[in-house]
User: Fold Guanidinium exporter from Denitratimonas tolerans.
Amino acid sequence: MAWISLLLAGVLEVVWAFSMKRSEGFTRLAPSLVTLVAMIASFVLLARAMRELPLGTAYTIWTGIGAVGAFALGVLALGEQLSPIRVAAAGLIVAGLVLMRVSEG
Assistant:
């Protein structure tokens, strides 16, 4: 259950990052509210996951999901630059997440 909580926390991190971008510096109400709700839910789920998972593993995977997810959403939904170097960087993050998970046994 800890891994499911951690995965959902990571997805919500992507949600709040995207909605924060859409809030235009917290000047738009709806995206600002989505940002705050998603942040709180993400932190709660991360805290739950940390009951069973080591700090380093949980935090690394949470931020990694957020980083790669935000990168992908930026490219797909916001038209941000997609270059081989940026894809390679995201691939290295994913490789690190896989290694972190495998190291848990």
